[in-house]
Amino acid sequence: MREARAPPAGATATAIGGPAGRVVAVVGAVTGAATMAGARGAEAVRSVGLALALAATASAVAAAAPARGGAGVEVRASKRGFEPSQLTLRRGESVRIVLSSADAEHCFAIDALRIEKRIVPGRSTTVDLTPDRAGVFPFYCCLESGEAAAVERGQITVAE
């Protein structure tokens, strides 16, 4: 774990976790350096600092954003089926489906969209999806057969 440091004299910092915390640290360090550099160099240091802060912010936002800005949906697979088993999406809108399981290995398959993902217990699996057409698309666990296969099913409804 990294040691927390106080910002330089004249700088302010706010404790924020994750990528945004790095942005705050960059801005605090640059502000402090500008204070120490004097009037002439201060403006140049602030300009460089602003550019670094903007780049760090863009990087943090891109890393945290679901599929091209889409929403995230959590789906849990178990021997009792998928929860939720019904998803409603909009055509052309990106969504990140986060799949998980606690009881056993499962599969998430949507034949019409050519998607098949393995779900391992204790680990998340993601599916980034941008539906290009409206309709009803059934999904199922491709590892099950018989009665278990009848339970481990669901559907995605894509509306205009």
What report would you give on this structure?
The protein is α/β, with parallel strands linked by helices. The protein folds into 2 domains: 1-64; 67-159, Immunoglobulin-like, CATH 2.60.40. It is 32% helix and 32% strand. The protein is built from 2 helices and 9 strands, in the order H-E-E-E-E-E-E-E-E-H-E. The chain has helices spanning 19-64, 147-151, and strands spanning 71-78, 81-83, 86-90, 95-101, 106-110, 115-119, 125-129, 135-140, 153-159. Strands 2-1-4-7 form a 4-stranded mixed beta sheet, with no helix packed on it. The radius of gyration is 23 Å and the shape is flat. The protein starts with 18 loop residues before the first helix and ends with a strand.
